[in-house]
Amino acid sequence: MSKRDDITWEVRSDDVFPLANEAHAYWSGYFTSRPSLKRQVRFASNFLNAARQMEVITGITAAEVDTPTTRPSPPVGTSWTDSMEGAIGVATHHDGMSGTERQDVSNDYSQRISEGHFEVEAGVALALKKLTGIKGEIGHCNCNAAGNCLNMSMCAYTTGVDEFTVIAWNPLGQNSTSWLRVPVTGAAWSVTDLATDTAVPSQAIAIDNRTHQLPLLYINKFGKTAQEIVEEETALGNKASHVLTFEAPLPPVGYSTFSVKKTSVDASVVAVAADATSGVATPSTVSNGVYVVTLDHVKGSITSVKNIASGAETALNLTWGWCEYSTPPRASQSIPHCSVVVLLISILHIASLCGQT
């Protein structure tokens, strides 16, 4: 086929998704299905990219790392990043993290990525020790070792201590600013950028009860006595009380270090107390330089969004809704066609808010 064939192609202006191939069957769930695997692949890919950079810059070898990933088949190479790369490559298949595979296959993807993570963590630790000259141990907060599950607000290296140092690597080719969060014990902390010896704004947010219950879900209570269950809960329970969040300026393809120390006064508590003494619940605002968001602390919600450049402002209302099973349901159907809970966002004049910059 060539241009000389003078063929006129159909022009489509509609969207092929969600695609329906039979009654009550829509190809749309894979955009949101298996969110845990999607998150794991995304975070692991970012970590792998940073690890490759450190591997090249420092010259750390797999023999030095000496933490080989057990992979009976297939062989994936000689680098300490190869096993994790292979696992991520398989998981990003269109039937992988899209969610159309069987559950046992999805579990295998997660396990192989996690196994490769161990070796990469060991390599990154050696690379950072070589770059920084640190002689002591460098640990990671992730979800591959007991007590180090950052997505459950757990980290053995930062919990139950009064002082520690955070090293953050920026894999981008330009200056970047990232929000770092680490689980801690206590609400009063100070953060210092060691490169500039300046204080970094930070906030400690209390961990909710539901998050504290997450690690306890992994306890196998079958056949255990009440005392044994209590001992398991004590061993696996999250010892952190807050998550410390701070903004970290990072250099291109490099790292920054931050000193974190426990203090006697929580600055955020002092600020809230000052507002309370006035007897007036004053809304506060946050901004990224493009938009200003107004927060109502009494209702615990966002009330408005303003475009700084255009001056356009609109009210923002968040409400909760839901959808039911299709009628009649398919014989093989076990979940609704749409999410059980849907966040509905009502935004007035959103076109004028986002269109004028």
Task: Give the secondary structure arrangement, pairings included.
Layout: E1 19-22, E2 25-27, H1 35-58, H2 62-65, H3 82-91, H4 103-132, E3 163-170, E4 176-184, E5 189-193, E6 198-200, E7 202-206, H5 209-213, H6 226-236, E8 242-250, E9 254-262, H7 267-278, E10 284-287, E11 291-296, E12 301-307, E13 313-322, E14 341-347, H8 350-355
Concise account of the structure shown:
The chain has 357 residues and is an alpha+beta fold.
SSE string, helices as H and strands as E: EEHHHHEEEEEHHEEHEEEEEH
The Rg value, from CA coordinates, equals: 25 Å
Question: How much of the polypeptide forms β-strand, as a percent range?
Answer: 15-25%
How do the strands line up in the largest sheet?
Answer: 10-11-12-13-14
Helix/sheet category: alpha+beta
| CATH topology group of the largest domain | Immunoglobulin-like
Largest sheet: 5 strands, antiparallel
Mean pLDDT: 83
Shape: globular
Give the tally of structural domains.
3
* Weakly predicted, low-confidence segments: 269-274, 331-353
Instruction: Count the beta strands.
Output: 14
Architecture of the largest domain in CATH? Sandwich
